[in-house]
Write a structure and sequence with these properties.
Elements (H helix, E strand, L loop, with lengths): L15 E5 L5 E4 L9 E4 L7 H12 L8 E4 L4 H6 L24 E4 L6 E5 L9 H13 L3 E6 L4 E3 L5 H10 L3 E2 L10 H7 L4 E5 L5 H17 L6
Parallel strand pairs: 3-4, 3-7, 7-10, 8-9
Antiparallel strand pairs: 1-2, 5-6, 8-10
The chain binds zinc ion.
């Protein structure tokens, strides 16, 4: 059930705080009242992908009932979001900072826009899991022990799931985004690799390059089903 549009301006409930960013901003999570979580969805770990946070926030605000089995982090990198940077306030790409076996200390690059070569430099952090936002997310996943995680990104237009899980296939059917088993380049220290090392299923949900309004039109319906637990897997 969805709320009337008039009510969608505000959240139904208050979030809990699972940590603080480097700039001391709250790291917030919306939890089911029971505290029992099957699916964790997070957005905004790359601050240059604010569309993921807006669409996830709208999907959460549209729910008429409290969360039942899903937990939601709208902004995993709030410092990056307020500064409009991919990395956190220390210039670290958080999605290369997770304490994985393949974490590496060299700078990583990303594309300014899709048409350009990957040449914009960011740090991977001083050590694996060096950043407060990374540490908080690691501790959160350990505490919640979800059955799966959906990590939202843009703009690669796919459902990246090496296991090609039923959940990824369902999301793919709903969104017409293809299931892929990798983004085509190495991602050492990524959240996905960190989950894989723990046998924790993770779907990296990559929005296509579209306006926020178009993303809402195209992807809000399936996302509200995930959040409300009315998809087939919770
Ligand atoms: Zn991203």
């Amino acid at each position: 059930m969805l709320r009337s549009r008039a009510a969608c301006g505000q959240f139904l409930s208050e979030p809990e705080v699972y940590g603080k960013s480097f700039l001391n901003q709250r790291l917030e999570i919306w939890l089911p009242p029971s505290g029992k979580v099957r699916t964790l969805v997070f957005a905004g770990i790359h601050g240059e992908e604010p569309e993921t946070s807006v669409v996830l926030s709208r999907s959460l605000r549209a729910l008429a009932d409290p969360l039942e089995r899903c937990a939601v982090v709208v902004a995993a990198n709030p410092d990056g979001l307020i500064r409009g940077t991919r990395g956190n306030a220390r210039g670290v790409d958080l999605n290369r900072n997770f304490p994985t076996q393949d974490w590496q200390p060299d700078s990583v690059t990303h594309r300014w826009v899709t048409e350009e070569p990957s040449e914009v430099l960011l740090s991977t952090g001083g050590s694996p899991g060096s950043e407060p936002e990374t540490q908080a997310l690691v501790a959160l996943v350990a505490k919640l022990d979800p059955a799966r995680v959906i990590a939202m990104h843009a703009p690669l237009a796919c459902m990246d799931d090496p296991e090609e899980s039923s959940e990824a296939c369902w999301l793919s059917e709903q969104t017409q985004l293809p299931v892929v088993s990798g983004v085509g380049y190495p991602t050492p220290g990524s959240f996905g690799t960190w989950c894989a090392e723990r046998q924790l299923p993770v779907i990296t949900y990559e929005f296509p390059r579209k306006s926020v309004e178009q993303l809402v039109l195209d992807y809000f319906p399936a996302l509200t089903q995930v959040l409300s637990g009315s998809w087939p897997f919770d």
